């Protein structure tokens, strides 16, 4: 396909912060990749290079944040030549691509939810999308409907289910006086913890634990909107480590 105009739209939800949403490329150096990186949406686009390779056409635009919240997000990409409108959840960003070409020349297939392994370093370092998509529309083609009716030929559809499974997570609500106490693991020399949280309060204690044998403690808290980790270790010279983010 060699197009002057493109309109691509879809909705997605995921709890993963990385993943390729769709990808297409061509032999003239053209490519378009929409992906999640660190829970942000990144669009990479190149409308081609000349034979000398002197025209630098790579363009990258980042929008949004915290998109791994398992809520539905809508994307619309409208391209007319080098002019692009990228809309995420009704917030539109307008930009113009680098280079001097107007046509997107895709010789190979377009893939949704991942990209084929091409041997290039960029392909094997990217994760496939893990989550749900709906209302995928590419230049007037309802991709979701065509895939469900098996009308995409040729196509390679692997491990797709046409339903969206909700994650089995159980949230816990804490008020100002409640807390949850769980038993530790005294024989372990590794301390590992992970959790998701959401709060409007700028201050609060998230986690506290004493190490066995009076070796110290670890504390995770929010202080004026920043998350801080404090590790106190006895019996060593540098007995306190503070990390803030």
Automatic annotation (TrEMBL):
<protein>
    <submittedName>
        <fullName>CNTP2 protein</fullName>
    </submittedName>
</protein>
<dbReference type="InterPro" id="IPR050372">
    <property type="entry name" value="Neurexin-related_CASP"/>
</dbReference>
<dbReference type="InterPro" id="IPR013320">
    <property type="entry name" value="ConA-like_dom_sf"/>
</dbReference>
<dbReference type="Pfam" id="PF02210">
    <property type="entry name" value="Laminin_G_2"/>
</dbReference>
<feature type="domain" description="Laminin G">
    <location>
        <begin position="1"/>
        <end position="164"/>
    </location>
</feature>
<dbReference type="InterPro" id="IPR001791">
    <property type="entry name" value="Laminin_G"/>
</dbReference>
């Amino acid at each position: 396909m060699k197009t002057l105009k493109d309109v691509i739209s879809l909705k997605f939800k995921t709890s993963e912060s990385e993943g390729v949403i769709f990808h297409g490329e061509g032999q003239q150096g053209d490519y378009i990749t929409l992906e999640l990186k660190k829970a942000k949406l990144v669009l990479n686009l190149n409308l081609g290079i000349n034979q000398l390779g002197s025209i630098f056409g790579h363009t990258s635009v980042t929008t949004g944040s915290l998109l791994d919240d398992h809520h539905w997000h809508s994307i619309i990409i409208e391209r007319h030549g080098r002019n692009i409108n990228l809309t995420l959840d009704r917030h539109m960003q307008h930009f113009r691509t680098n280079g001097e070409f107007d046509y997107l020349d895709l010789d190979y297939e377009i893939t949704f939810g991942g990209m084929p392994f091409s041997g290039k370093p960029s392909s094997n370092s990217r994760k496939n999308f893990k989550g749900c998509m709906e209302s995928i529309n590419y230049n007037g083609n309802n991709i979701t409907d065509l895939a469900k009716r098996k009308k995409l030929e040729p196509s390679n559809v692997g491990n797709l289910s046409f339903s969206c499974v909700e994650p089995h997570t159980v949230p816990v609500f804490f008020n100002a006086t409640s807390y949850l106490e769980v038993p530790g693991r005294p024989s372990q020399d590794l301390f590992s913890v992970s959790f998701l949280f959401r709060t409007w309060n700028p201050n609060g204690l998230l986690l506290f634990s004493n190490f066995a044998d009076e070796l110290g403690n670890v504390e995770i808290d929010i202080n004026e909107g920043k998350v801080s980790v404090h590790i106190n270790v006895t019996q060593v010279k540098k007995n306190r480590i503070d990390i803030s983010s």
